[in-house]
């Protein structure tokens, strides 16, 4: 039985459709990331699962029980979910322990049981030592751990997270990301994790659902998404691929005035289409092709930018002293995908 089942969900604000006929089945114990650009409908989808928004059409089931359907809408508190948002949403006048305890009070649990559960949840996020602190004496990472403990303390059926790390600096973000991964393997909680950060989605989730303009473009395991993007959008959004419209003769692609040649054994279908190629799948050597317009040393590799008429092309290759700004290069394709037009 699916932990969360979304069936043909729709939601509009005014006349603008924001979520369009979205269906997704999330298994028990599974972690699914909803990944997509700003405004694509991720938060709206999560808020519908939470019961904070009412779908215009479609159905939502949690653990096999319908919580939204035509004529049916269960309020958030009846869904037994945990939620963590980007803003920590921690009560400033309560201590860490009181914050975590609050959902248990709402449920009417007795004192001894509350204390035991709070202790356990603070242990999960390694905050036992700070139980008596006030939030204003905590770092962003600690605040978000309080929010996590509070979301987990009531033993939620599903934990919903909306960009939980995006208010943190890079180092804290990496730390807490590892913490969420470890929590998950210990607790086995089903999670829906909203993010626009591909590294977070690919690194944490069992499956990633890539969303674009209210529609799921592809739902797949991270390796599949990265290796076999179903659409040019997914390739661009997830792997940072170049997407270039051109004409292929099978072993080379003409893009405007520029020709990119395939390196054997790569061949492509012939005709007009979209060439999708990741920066790291291009080879760059001095030659008589496109002119180098930018060169960024990144440590392990150098990023080269070329201007192909109206398109920009980005390549990631070893540093070459011979390739200087404004000089012509030969750019070849080691691996690429082709979407016919
Ligand atoms: N209450 C609302 N009233 C009107 N429009 C809304 C409302 N909430 C969201 N929208 C619009 O719906 C669209 C989707 O919003 P949503 O918050 O779901 O996007 P998102 O994918 O979470 O984006 P982000 O990555 O920026 O958080 C946006 O265009 C947004 O402006
Ligand atoms: Mg959002």
Defining traits:
single chain, 341 residues, alpha+beta, six-stranded mixed β-sheet, 25% helix, binds adenosine-5'-triphosphate, binds magnesium ion
Which term fits the overall shape? elongated
For the record, the count of structural domains works out to 2
- Residue stretches low in confidence (pLDDT < 50, at least 5 long) are none
Gyration radius (Cα, Å) is 24 Å
CATH architecture of the largest domain: 3-Layer(aba) Sandwich
Secondary-structure class: alpha+beta
- Tell me the series of helices and strands, N- to C-terminal: EEEHEEEEHHHEHEHEEHHEEEEEEEEE
The portion of residues forming beta strands comes to 35-45%
Mean pLDDT: 94
* CATH level-1 class of the largest domain: Alpha Beta
**Into which percent range does the helicity of residues fall?**
25-40%
- Can you tell me the CATH superfamily of the largest domain? P-loop containing nucleotide triphosphate hydrolases
Q: Which fold name is given in CATH as the topology of the largest domain?
A: Rossmann fold
Q: What small ligands are held by the chains? A: adenosine-5'-triphosphate, magnesium ion
Termini separation comes to 40 Å
Instruction: Determine the number of helices (DSSP H or I, runs of at least 4 residues).
Output: 8
Number of strands: 20
Strand order of the largest sheet: 18-17-16-19-14-13-12-15-20
